[in-house]
Write a structure and sequence with these properties.
- The complex is a heterodimer of chains A (484) and B (211).
- By secondary structure, chain A is α+β, with helices and mostly antiparallel strands.
- Chain A has 3 domains: 67 residues, no CATH class; 83 residues, Immunoglobulin-like (Sandwich); 320 residues, Phosphatase 2c, domain 1 (4-Layer Sandwich), CATH 3.60.40.10.
- Chain A has 12 helices and 18 strands.
- A 6-stranded antiparallel sheet of chain A has the order 8-9-18-17-14-15. A 5-stranded antiparallel sheet of chain A has the order 10-11-12-13-16. A 4-stranded mixed sheet of chain A has the order 1-7-6-3, with helices on one face.
- With 211 residues, chain B is of the alpha/beta class.
- Chain B has a single domain, classed as 3-Layer(aba) Sandwich (Rossmann fold).
- Chain B contains 6 helices and 7 strands; from the N terminus they run E-H-H-E-E-H-E-H-E-H-E-H-E.
- Chain B has a 7-stranded mixed sheet, with helices on both faces.
- In chain B, strand 4, helix 4 and strand 5 form a beta-alpha-beta unit.
- In chain B, helix 1 runs parallel beside helix 6 and helix 3 packs parallel to helix 4.
- The termini of chain B are far apart.
- Classes of the chains: A alpha+beta (484), B alpha/beta (211).
- The interface between A and B is large, with 41 and 35 residues.
């Protein structure tokens, strides 16, 4: 039986009940000896009374259905302004006729019967405004009865993207640094006419900092030495909770780059050791020699950086090293006729990787330090880092590769949203996707890509613009340095 | 996505019946409204509410702020205050709901705990046993609030150094208190990392620091 039929059955039952009752009343009137003359008014009164009974019954039916509607316990989930909203629920359509949902249209929503068989209704649309609202579901129950209504509260959150403020950092604070930074290091082709790799880097204050006018804590430093042809890159991420970490990251980057620069500018022994090792890679003595020299340069660079930050901390008012907490990653790279020599040091989170699109490899230069919870990491400023007996094997890396697409150094503000987990950092396909993202940008969000072609000095601005990509919950400072 | 788990433990014992609990509800609503206006909170805060009287209930499992709908909070006529039992349930839920970092999963921010009471634990032995358990759960901050004249601050001091008191039960006080809780949650959103202690924003005038 369908709904119409059921309704008709209900109605005819009511009519025949009335007929029966009327006939019974006539016979009863006769039996009871109601005089002819009084029968009319008696009947009027009786019918009026029966009509009342009928109405009461109808009303009772309505109340039963209304209760049933309330007991459905309909609760509409919250929505977000501008984001597709869709919520389905079942209504007892054999008992109610939905007349409309007041207030829905004003909020940008529409109610639709999506399954006549089950009585499934769907409320959908794009919410127009944030706040707490009440929608009124109007429906009829029994024919002849007026409309019933069910109030349904609904809440829409604002679109988080519209809530961010961008408050410039007060330039009068101690250790002020600009809210963003970018640099392009163009390396001209050598005498042989072969083009050389360039470096580009950008650092953008995170939205969570910009929202409250707090400074950028990240830092980077790039350097290419014309005399020795060494490339030196450093990225540091000052701890969000340490109040002068912006200075810690700056001192760390500058110190290692200065250190490596002076170590490498004229170091024929090191160059010779690299060549000797490359020529005979199975030779452990030669390997030990080059490793010892790498440690001398790289590890000492890290120690110097630690000490330099400590000196600044000691000279500060409170004198606490942990107020200057920062991570640090840096790499020295040079192209030889046999390929690229790369050595690096990494303490903290983020990512440092040699990406080679052609060879389909992504070589991570270490392991990010991560704790059980987000934000827990290791810092250059922790003295115990250097007391760890595995510090060299854990944090130093040395590699010789024929060539590569890009050497990436990035703070966790970039690696977290792009790679999410540690495992993904070791997955070539994720690096491939990342590289693609970098080149193509985020067209849906109006974020342009970066043109990583030789000598494209515009890449610095493009990279800085790219760092504004959107990722829910990821609003940390973002820094990336690329050798390509 | 990095979540910031926030646990609220609310005393619903008989003495909270009437104006006090209504004030708490008004305060909670105001706190939610204020957090929803903060983009970082909107994307990262996850809230759970545990109520405790003679019975202990997690009336709201850990839920993202944007999806959250206020649960029913009721109070019995009278009966004990099972604060220890509440801490026990808290530990169970934290173990189940808070994510730790693994190679395949990004860990949550360290959770925050707010506990509010107008009396003292009836199950003091269990309460004392649970304190080291709670401390093992790596809360970035634990803030305790003693509301009204009969609230005992001593047991709370064993749980945390951050104990505050409210003299009155009116909705203004609670609104101020929860506004401050919401400010603290936003601080929690950023101050996890190198320093071990959560730096609390200064409390409003209605909230007294218990030394």
């Amino acid at each position: 039986m369908n709904r119409q039929q059921r309704k008709a059955a209900r109605q005819s039952a009511a009519v025949s009940r009335l007929n029966e009752e009327a006939r019974a009343i006539y016979s009863a009137m006769a039996r009871a000896g109601v005089p002819e003359a009084d029968r009319g008014s008696f009947l009027d009164r009786t019918i009026a009374s029966l009509w009342q009974t009928y109405k009461d019954e109808r009303m009772n039916q309505r109340i039963v259905i209304e209760n049933e509607m309330r007991q459905l316990g309909l609760r509409l989930p919250n929505g977000t302004v501008g984001k597709e909203y869709s919520c389905s629920f079942l209504l007892p359509v054999d008992k109610v006729d939905v007349q409309g949902l007041d207030g829905a249209a004003d909020l940008g929503l529409e109610l639709e019967l999506t399954d006549t068989h089950t009585g499934e209704y769907t409320l959908r649309g794009k919410p127009l405004q944030a706040g707490d609202f009440t929608l009124r579901l109007r429906y009829t129950t029994v024919e002849g009865e007026g409309e019933s209504a069910l109030d349904l509260p609904i809440a829409f959150n604002p679109d988080p993207r519209t809530l961010w403020n961008n408050v410039p950092t007060n330039p009068d604070i101690a250790y002020y640094k600009p809210d963003s930074e970018k640099e392009y290091v163009k390396v001209e082709a050598g005498e042989d006419g072969v083009s050389k790799k360039d470096m580009v880097a950008a650092s953008q204050r995170g939205r969570s900092h910009a929202h409250e006018g707090r400074p950028r804590d990240d830092h980077f430093t790039l350097y290419h030495c014309r005399d020795s042809d060494w490339y030196i890159m450093a990225v540091a991420d000052g701890a969000g909770s340490a109040k002068y970490s912006r200075k810690g990251s700056e001192v760390a980057c500058k110190t290692v780059v200065e250190h490596c620069k002076s170590e490498l500018i004229d170091n024929p022994e090191f160059e010779a050791a690299i060549r000797a090792y490359e020529a005979d890679r199975e030779n452990t003595e030669k390997r030990t020699d080059v490793t010892r020299r790498v440690i001398d340069i790289i590890y000492k660079g890290a120690v110097n950086a630690h000490n330099a930050v400590k000196r600044v901390a000691d000279a500060s008012e409170e004198g606490r090293l942990k107020d200057f907490a920062t991570t640090l990653m840096f790499a020295i790279c040079k192209r030889y006729d046999f390929g690229w020599f790369i050595a690096s040091f990494w303490v903290g989170d983020g990512a440092m990787c040699i990406y080679d699109a052609e060879a389909k490899t992504a070589k991570l230069l270490g392991t990010p330090d991560e704790g059980e919870f987000s934000g827990q990491t290791r810092f250059l400023t922790m003295p115990e880092i250097f007391h760890d007996k595995d510090v060299v094997s854990k944090r130093l890396r040395m590699a010789i590769v024929p060539d590569f697409t890009a050497l990436y150094l990035m703070s966790d503000g970039v690696s977290d949203p792009m790679f999410e987990t540690d495992r993904n950092l070791n997955d070539f396909s994720r690096w491939e996707a990342f590289h693609e993202r970098l080149l193509k940008g985020f067209p849906d969000d109006g974020i342009a890509g970066v043109d990583l072609t030789d000598d494209n000095e515009k890449a610095a601005d493009q990279l800085l613009g790219w760092l504004d990509f959107w990722s829910p919950g990821n609003h940390d400072d973002r820094t990336i340095a690329i050798l390509y | 996505m990095r979540r910031l788990p926030v646990y609220l433990l609310i005393d619903t014992s008989g003495s909270m019946r009437g104006e006090p609990i209504e004030s708490v509800k008004v305060g909670l609503e105001a706190m939610l409204a204020s957090l929803r206006q903060e983009p970082y909170a909107l994307e990262s805060v996850n809230l759970s509410i545990i109520t405790y009287d003679g019975e202990v209930k997690q009336v709201l499992p850990l839920t993202p702020l944007d999806e959250l709908q206020m649960p029913q909070i009721t109070t019995p006529d009278s009966g004990p205050t099972h604060t220890g039992q509440a801490l026990k349930l808290l530990c169970e839920r934290v173990d189940r709901e808070v994510r730790r970092s693994t190679p395949d999963q990004k860990g949550d921010w360290m959770p925050l705990l707010f506990i509010m009471t107008d009396g003292k634990p009836s199950d003091i032995q269990l309460y004392n046993e649970m304190i080291p358990e709670v401390k093992r759960r790596n809360f970035a901050g634990i803030v305790a609030c003693a509301a009204g004249m009969n609230a005992k601050t001593e047991p709370l001091k064993a749980l945390t150094d951050d104990v505050y008191s409210l003299d009155t039960f009116d909705s203004t006080s609670f609104k101020q208190f929860f506004k401050w809780v919401s400010d603290t949650i936003q601080t929690g959103n950023r101050s996890v990392g190198a320093t071990d202690d959560l730096v609390l924003p200064p409390p409003p005038a209605e909230v007294n620091v218990v030394c």
